[in-house]
Amino acid sequence: MANVSAVGEPSGPRPSKGFNPKRIIIYGIIIVAAMYYLLPLYVMITTSLKGLPEIRLGNIFAPPLEIITIEPWVKAWTSACTGLTCNGLAPGFWNSVKITVPSTIISVLVAAVSGYALVNWRFKGSEFFFTCLLLGSFIPYQVMLYPMVMITAQLKIFGTLWAVILVHTVFGMPILVLLFRNYFASLPQELFKAARVDGAGFWRIFFQIMVPMSLPIFAVAIILQVTGIWNDFLFGVVFAGTQNYPMTVQLNNIVNSTQGVREYNVNMAATILTAAVPLIVYFVSGKWFVRGIAAGAVKG
How far apart are CA 266 and CA 80, in angstroms? Predict the structure, then answer.
């Protein structure tokens, strides 16, 4: 009995409970990296809460020493000049919402169906089609910019929100189809075959079996599209038209405005307001993003 108990006991070195040099180095690197990324955010927040006289003192790292004011935030949202108009970021925010929501919904749904078909309902030339999509995900946007301008002009939508929605949907498809195709390929094929034997068709299998099992990859796709579309500047400034500029373009116009006194507190407040949506998305759904990647989002 003594020999049996001895065999069953764990062997090997126990993990140390205290700090050792290796752990100190790891935590040190993490702390330095966190400070590197959080310091600009700290400077932006503190500057946006200061008045211009205090900002002119030059100590950007000091917290607000006088009364904290939210006037720069109000001005950035309602009355900051974004070119010839001084309506703040509010119109750009709603333009960004009108661009992001339909672009994300359309691209994610089409990519999910395409990835599902490429794995479970292969057709003649499906591998060639997938290869073209794979190559398309590596083509720089600038290469296709002029052809897309010509296409949207022929469709009579250039200079409208529909042009930006179309461009974002098209350019988001390759990487999203790749994600969904790889995820569906990692699911047990026995479920698909059993559903076929039971008489289920294309759409019934997709909605009743594949979609409920694919919520993590849907979360990954939505996060990628929302953050990518919301942070986009190039497509917005080229395709939207001056009346439909998204938030990022209006932020650029506020920061680069040369009229009057440069209000750094307003600029910082406008920057934080523009970045608020991607930050909220990451904070709220970050765990879903990690789960989706871990569950097979990058499996081949």
Answer: 8
Integer CA distances (angstroms), 185 to 108, 146, 177, 293, in order: 17, 36, 12, 14
Q: What's the farthest any 2 CA atoms get from each other in the chain?
A: 89
Q: What is the mean pLDDT of residues 90-110?
A: 93
Query: 87 with 159: CB under 8 angstroms?
Result: no
CATH code of domain 90-297: 1.10.3720.10
Q: Which residues contact 43 (CB under 8 A, 6 or more apart)?
A: 60, 61, 268
The pTM of the full predicted model, rounded to 2 decimals, is: 0.81
Asked whether the predicted pLDDT for residue 280 surpasses 80, the reply is yes
**pLDDT one-digit tens code per residue, 253-275:** 888 875 667 888 888 999 999 99
Domain borders along the chain are 19-69, 90-297
What are 253's two structure tokens?
Answer: 């116009």
Burial letters for 113-150: b for 16+ Cβ neighbours within 10 Å, e otherwise?
A: bbbbbbbbeeeeeeeebbeebeebeeeeeeeeeeebee
What single-letter DSSP state applies at residue 233? -
